[in-house]
Structures are given as structure tokens and as C-alpha cells.
Write a structure and sequence with these properties.
The complex is a heterodimer.
Chain A lengths: L11 E8 L11 E2 L7 E10 L19 H15 L4 E10 L2 H13 L4 E5 L2 H8 L8 E4 L16 E3 L4 H15 L3 E6 L3 H16 L3 E7 L12 H12 L7 E5 L19 E3 L4 E3 L10 H12 L5 H19 L5 H9 L14 E2 L6 E2 L2 E4 L4 E5 L26
Chain B lengths: L2 H10 L7 E6 L4 E6 L5 E6 L4 E6 L5 E6 L4 E6 L4 E7 L4 E6 L5 E6 L4 E6 L4 E7 L4 E6 L5 E6 L4 E6 L4 E7 L4 E6 L5 E6 L4 E6 L5 E6 L15 E4 L4 E5 L5 E6 L5 E6 L4 E6 L5 E6 L4 E6 L4 E7 L4 E7 L1
Antiparallel strand pairs in B: 1-2, 1-28, 2-3, 4-5, 5-6, 6-7, 8-9, 9-10, 10-11, 12-13, 13-14, 14-15, 16-17, 17-18, 18-19, 20-21, 21-22, 22-23, 24-25, 25-26, 26-27
Classes of the chains: A alpha/beta, B mainly beta.
Chain lengths: ~400, ~325
Amino acid sequence: MFGRWREAAFAAALFVLSPFGAAAQAQTPTQAQTPTPAPTDIVVPYLALTRPSSVPESALDRPPENEGLLGARVAVADNQTTGRFLHQSWRLDEHLANDEAALVQAFEDAAGQGHRLFVVDAPPSVLLKLADLPEAKGAVILDATSTADALRGKDCRRNVLHLLPSDAMWADALMQFLAVKRWRDLLLVSGPADEDRQLADALRRSARKFQLRIVADKPWTYNPGSRRSDTGHYAIGAEVARFTQGVAYDVLVVADTRDDFGDDIAYRTTDPRPVAGTHGLVPGAWAKPFEQWGGTQLQTRFFKATGRWMTSRDYGAWMAVRAIGEAATRGGSTDTGKIAEYLRGPKFELAAYKGVPLSFRSWDGQLRQPVLLADDRSLVSVSPQPGYLHQFSELDTLGTDQPETTCHT
Amino acid sequence: MPYVILLLALFLAFPAAAERLLVSNEKDNTITVVDAATLAVTHTVPVGARPRGIALSKDGGSLYICTSDADHIEVLDLASMKVSRILPSGPDPELFVLSPDGTTLYIANENDNMVSVLDIASGRVTTEIAVGVEPEGLGVSPDGRILVNTSETTSMAHFIDTATHEVIANVLVDSRPRRAVFTPYGKQVWVSSEVGGTVSIVDAETHEVIHKIRFAVPGIPAEGIQPVGIALLPERNLAFVALGPANRVAVVDMKTFEVQKYLLVGQRVWNLAFSLDKSRLYTTNGVSNDMSVIDVAALKVIKSVPVGALPWGVVVAP
């Protein structure tokens, strides 16, 4: 979930679904080949807000280019392959915006053309701005990449659906796993960024929920910049050893969404302890080593099309566009109103290589889904962990369940 | 085969002598050969990378193997237990079906949305048919005229005329369709949907879904029920459906479509094959790395046989 390049090219993007020809052309599931009706064009414009990228701490991974957009492109190609058999013709219409105002303008223009279904890749403040536009009233915005709990809670909007797991789901996925392992005592280390603080809050709440103990809760203040200078490893090694001395814990949980220091912790602690969180064992919607439930196929398809590995943000955009495609196929209509209705309805199911169908929670618009737990080279586990039961769906043991929701709009 | 003998065989639940079970092991790149009488492993044959779909040649003398990561098909000579021939397949062949006359293999190329048509005698791919995203299951009608292909992400069963190689109908089924199996007289096609958790019964004439079989296993969440392999036994009006991570094989009445029983087998049960006399049903269990043996007359699981790593398919050879 935490792409290493939060700051890199923060692309705010929105896709707009537009059926050409306003008539809701009914599609029957079974279609003989002849006679061939004219295909219904479905255009998905893509609007991205770009920001300058920061220099990554490690030189090993290049910041992924066009994160999100490439997932959307692969999804549109998937929709097109399916749509061919239903006489639908899908296309991604890409627009890049340099600032928030241009993005808002693009949204208004698209809405002005009659589009009612949008997929947005934007930071929470921008997402809310779009959702509160008069033009967004009655529309559905698919939030492809945000993970903020506030967007699912006190700042939730009825016209927004969220594709990626929330911070709460992310934290719960890890805590369930640690509880099952009986690694109960945690040392929490969090960075100074707003996102780090929000994630640390989610981890604290989740630890309480699953009855794990945070035995020490320490902010990371050391500047790790020296690591890559000559003999820098002495300084960072000594600092982490000091930092972790005198604490009795099972696992070090790190919240470093900007990738500033998380890679510098493992093997440098005073006691031999595993690292989890944004580094080490990482929960996520997608992971490079993931190859179960047909995931290999999507990994291969994405790599072939783009020349790089898929990230969680790419996957979020892929799911958003595929969700629209699925609703258009299953709902029997390319009318955007009907698609929006179907997305929220009880029949909607998204197959997204997780072995189980995914659907949107009615109370906060969050897509319920399993969360992967992986390190760089292997998939370690998938949450929910066996044994965490739920009266309706075990997937709802991750994140904010209906009785606890603060989304009451 | 005379009916009496068949009946006798059913009651004895003891397969004919010299029968062999061939299992493809996706993770350790081998074919496990099991003697059906003793249920002992007799050979472990190394083959190309990631063997998945397997099928017996019409004369029973060879095994065709989709070696997916090697991007070709290997022909295993069952007398010498050596790979005797390599056939082209198009990229990433996952599984295939043999035409009833034994001359043609229809191959699902999972990564490029194609079904390849391979002429076995000449060893050439003669046609590629464009289908949906991630083609998977393949079934051919008993008369060989209609090929059905399922595409996992498109969630359709594509009906293809094998004479013209044109897609004649596309039937939307539940998410991630896996297998397509014709009933013996070609009236219906049974399609399993892994994520949808159902088996759709499609009328082969009208291309309508006439029924959807749903499954419920006590103690297993609905998401944990993922139908894949299908084996039909019209002689007893029974269908068997492998339910993946639910670790069960469902026994279904072929006429009423009611589920009669769930048989507990190994973990992530995937594909199914009958013994030649239909007295036993064999299952591949991908996670527990074994094969379960079901006594068809008693509807009981009688044995587990350890095989290779991540067993995928099983066929029975004389």
C-alpha cells in the first residue's frame, strides 16, 4: 500500500466514464455473432496532477513512472477484450494537470459533458474538494489510491468509493498476523510526516483491538542522510542499536511512509528482532512476489505492457477501472447511472486475484478485500488470518466495521 | 463394455489391472506415475517447466503435457517414460483439450488471450482464435464440432465452431470461470466459476444458462468455496465438483442439480479423473501435495497418495 514514492510524482488522476449515445443500450449476456450491432463507445478520460519527484534514499529502486495510470491502462485493455464480445469499445482518454485548479477544471468540464462516474487518484484534500463540487452531486467518484482513514470516517462522502485498503485495514492485517504468531510486544517507531502519524495512530488502535502491547512508542528523529556516505553505516548502526537498547519487545513496527529510514532498521537493532510495517514484512493490496490465485497472470500482463512491476497504487487504479467494466458487463447497461447503482448494489463482485470476490462496504464505501503480507522476495501470509470470524464476512474483521463506523452522512 | 461387467466393477470398486495414474506437478516440474492397483508411486518423470494441463493421446500411448513456463507442449511416451517430442503451443499454455478424433489439440494461451489450434501430426499451430482475458477452461463437444473456452477475467464461456474457428456465442457466467465440460450427449456445458462460487449449466443449443449450482459447506465461509474441476458420471446421474480451498468434492445430482454430499479430500482440490471403469475418482490436491482416492460406489474417500509439489492435473492411462 505504501508505495515507496509517496512524494514522487503524486499523480492526481480521474477517469470519467462516458457512454456515447445516451441511450442505455441493454446488453444481454448471450449474444450471437450475427448480426453485429455497432459497438457502444465507452471513453474513460484520465486526468493526472503531477508533482516533482523527490530523490529516493536507496538507489536500487527507481521511482515508478506513471504510477496508477499504467494500472488503469492495463485495466482498460482488459475491459476492451471483454467488451469486444458485448459490442462495447473501451478507451482511456488521458489528461495531465499540473495543479489542483487545473484538475478541478478538468473535473468540471467532464461533468459538464454529462459524465457521472469518476475515478480519482488524488491526495485526500483534493479528493474532498472534487467530491464537494456541485458538479459531483449524484456522481460516483472511485478513489483509486488514497488510504486515509478520515476519508472513510469523519470526512466520508456518500459519492466516493475507496479501492485500496484503508490504513485501519492495513494495520489490522499486520496485527492479526502478529497475534496469530503470538508476537505480542511491539516497539513502534514512527516518522515525522503527517502520513506517518496517521499510520502510527492506526497501528495503535489496531494493537488495542487485537490486544497486543506497544511496550515503547518512539518517534524517529535521527537524520539518516549519512548512510550512503563513506563509513555511514557505522553511524546508522550505532544509532539504531542505541535507539532499540533497553526495550524488551518481540517485533519492531515501523511507520515511515516516505521511505526515509525504514530500510536502516533491520539487523542494526540491539536484540535480534524482525521488522514489520512500512518496511520488512509489509502489508499491502499488491506485492511484487505475489503469484497466487492467478496473480501471476496480472503480474505478467502488467510487466509486459509497462516494463516494470505493478505497485499497490497501480493495482488500485486497475481495480477502479475493472470495477466499472465489471458493473457495465454484469449490470447489463452502459448507462453510467445504472453502472453506479450496480457498483453499490448487493450483486457487485470484483475478481481481483485474491481468491475471493471483493465488494464495497455499504457503510463507508470501502472495498472489502484480503490484505497481503510480504517482504521483498516472498509472500508471507494473507489476512484475515484463519480464526478471526465474523457474522457476515471475515473480510470485515479488517478495518472499520459497521457498528464502529463514524461515517454518517 | 457389457453392462453387467460395469456393474460388477462398480460394486467391487477395484480398477482394472495395469492402470496407471499420471499427475502433473506444477512446482517441481515432474509427472508422478502411480500404479492404480497398489496406489504406489512407480515413476517420477522430470519434464519441462511448470507442467499443468495433461491429456492422454487417443491411442493411450502418450501423454501430452502443457509445460507452461517452457512455452511448449511435451509428448511423454508412456512405454519408455521419456519425452519423445516437443510441440509448439503459443505462449504460456495452461491447459488444452484433445479433439474426439485425436488429431487436434486446442490450447489455452493464458497470457495472450488466444486459443491455439495445434495439428498434432504436422506439429504445427494452424490457427489462433481471439478470446477473452486469460483463457482457461476448454471443452469439446462429443461430435467435435463445438469448442467451449472460458476466459477468467472476462468471465465468459466462448462457443467456437471448430470448422470455421469463429466464435458463435459468448455466455456470461460468474467470476473467474475455470472448467467447461460437455455432458456425454453434448446437450449441456457445465462451467465452474472459481470466484463466483457456482457451476453454471449452459444449454449447448440455445447458449442460455439454465441453472446455477450453489454450494454451502458448514463451517466454511462462502468465499472459501471455489469450484474448479468437474467430472460427470451420467451412468449414475452424478456430477463431482472440486471446491478448491474448501477441501471438498461436491456430489451433485445431474438432473435436479441438487448437491447430495460433500466429500472431505486434501487441501485445494483442483482437478478430477475417473478410473477407466469409473469405480474410482482421483483428485489432485495442490496444497497438501497429494491425491485423494474416492470410492464412487460408496461415495467415500478411501486413501490419500502423496505425489509431487503442487499437483495440478490427473489422467488415467491403461
